Amino acid sequence: MAYDAATSQLVLFSGSGADGAPRDTWTWDGATWTQQSPAASPPARYYASMAYDPATSQLVLFGGGMNSTGIAGDTWTWDGTTWTQQSPATSPPARFGASIAYDPATSQLVLFGGIGLDGLPLNDTWTWDGTTWTQQSPATSPPARYQASMAYDTATSQLVLFGGVGGPSGIAADTWTWDGTTWTQQSPTASPPARYNASMAYDLDTAQLVLFGGARSTGIIGDTWTWDGTTWTQQSPATSPPARYAASMAYDPATSQLILFGGYNTSGLFADTWTYSGGRQSQSISFSSTAPSSARYSGANDQTYTATATATSGLPVTLSVDSSSTSGCVISGGALSYGNGAGTCIIDANQPGNDSYLPAAQVTQGFTISPAPLSITASSPAMTYGGTVPAITPTYSGFAGHDGPSSLSAPPSCSTTATAASPAGTYPSTCSGAADPNYTISYNPGTVTVNKATSTTTLTAHLNPPPRRPRLKLTATVIPKASAETPAGDVNFYAGALGHHHRLLGTASLSSTGTAVFTTTPLACGGHRIYAVYIGTANDTGSTSATIRCSRYHRHTHRRLLPGGFDVPGSE
Asked: Total structural domains in the chain?
């Protein structure tokens, strides 16, 4: 098991299981294990060597024992999604139980020892540079061994190797350090008892190496030791995992704890997960304030909420706005201001811990600032049949703060179904397409009224012989205002004696040229007023011509008359 800094997860691959070595990959996110489904995986194996290579942002796995095919000598890398077999130019001989760790001083992985194909322990040192393996030739080396514990000590900038099996005395209890060039045996004033297959990792929180458990000649042990760069010290934690060996252990920066998984003892396999906190107490955070439940966009951060959170340790909690927030909320101390944008506001609560307490797991509190309602209404203009269609314009209701139409990320477009050829009547006008994350937009339709077009009617009269009983030929000409329209409809002709009620002379239909012709019956003697009334259509209003005045006299009068006894018609 090793920590994958690229994905911020611990990665566990294969190992010995109840049915042999499984071929599974699991990740730990600080709270739970998740089995992965990579497109490719190394063959199942146990006692393989694995460590993270920051230079390539990949985990590197080498060798291991295989149930059916013996011992492996292949190299695989994990990129956070799948495994890929590498083809280095040179490679260590096949082995299992080798120790591996990353050396930041040389930016290389260091692999030491293991047990080879001949069943004998090894004491060779190899480095991985991201592309190939290179065998090193240190001036001194630990005696040959396998299943030794090795980890990088950040405090002293050295790799530390402890114990293993296969040395001159069988199971070892010696401590060695690698400085990037050679191995040096250390002489601590105290050391753990000899063991192999112990779990060891660097605890960044306490700046010490932590060694747990392992196997020795007298049985399996479950003690905890720390290395401070000079000597080993046995710890006495309040609780400890049951004694075991070959467990996987690595430091999880997400929780500032060491994570230990699995292992063996005389009762069989373990599948349990343990954390080690170096003696510091854990703590947790909880919010003591309730987030707003009906926040709404107001155009400015003019709404406030006082957020409060406490830690069980009593240490102060730091509040900040999470980078994933989308509303533009801001916080100072515990005073949160919001309203300048719709979206989410997420508050992070953190407590970094101290010498007595571990860092608390981050806790978040979030709420949503809802968009403000905005209604857009289409205008309701009027037009004349056959005329120009008026522009449809929007009116707004609901803008917040200093917002206006120009604040919208996308303006509305407005239109009507009415056209210049639309018959008189009413037609809908609508707006649509406006958009803005700060508003929930609704639309109200308008109405375009198409009014009837006006018309003009003129009237002319001519005598129509025979002269004995003269008649008038009346011609009404109608000109609709919608000039492109073909006139249609009927014209009524009226006449009346002066001082008497007018009467209908007759009706004529308009021709395609806009004229209606009507010839009167003989008129009675006396004065007459004659006019034409255009009745109109569904799309045109009616109109009345000017009045024509004419007189008819008896023949024995002394006035000079036109044939038939009519004055020349004139208009009033």
From this structure: 4
